[in-house]
Design goal:
Layout lengths: L2 H49 L5 H48 L4 H31 L24
Helix pairs in contact: 1-2, 2-3
């Protein structure tokens, strides 16, 4: 194949690879969100674990239930991170196979299609894990003053005087 045709072919492959590269950018942003959520879950769990040894019996039970929920949320986010990372790796493989096909003239359409389908499936399941974790986070969300038995001693404030 003449060099001008090779350059044209490679330019076409680069055009085909641009969409997956944008998809990789989106997945990277999603991974950033997921890792930030995981960090917040871990920080919250560590705070509750530190409070557990000195907690009153009723409060200890509430803390234990909260830790179980946080553990479940952390597992879902971790699974989502793994699936989104796998999706990014598969998308990278799609780009590699496109270039290998271009350079060596292999017929890899079925491989590219399969890799892309598996990548989108992994991304979709990762997003479902994220959605489920957000649902769990808001399921037990309580806005307003906590019940007295669930209020840590450091959060009890003196009554406000009305002068």
């Amino acid at each position: 194949m003449p060099e001008s045709e090779q350059v044209s072919t490679i330019a076409h492959v680069i055009q085909l690879a641009v969409a997956p590269v944008f998809l990789l950018s989106g997945i990277a942003a999603l991974l950033n969100v997921l890792t930030n959520r995981l960090n917040r879950i871990v920080d919250r769990a560590r705070g509750l674990e530190a409070e557990l040894p000195t907690a009153a019996p009723g409060r200890a039970e509430t803390l234990g239930a909260s830790l179980v929920r946080l553990s479940r949320r952390a597992r879902l986010i971790s699974l989502g991170i793994g699936l989104c990372t796998a999706s990014a790796i598969l998308i990278s493989c799609v780009v590699i196979v496109l270039f290998v096909d271009s350079v060596f003239g292999l017929r890899t359409a079925a491989v590219v299609a399969t890799l892309f389908i598996v990548a989108m499936t992994a991304l979709t399941v990762g997003l479902v894990c994220f959605l489920r974790e957000v649902h769990l986070a808001t399921l037990h969300l309580r806005i307003g003053a906590p019940e007295p038995e669930n209020t840590p001693p450091s959060a009890v404030l003196a009554p406000v005087r009305k002068d």
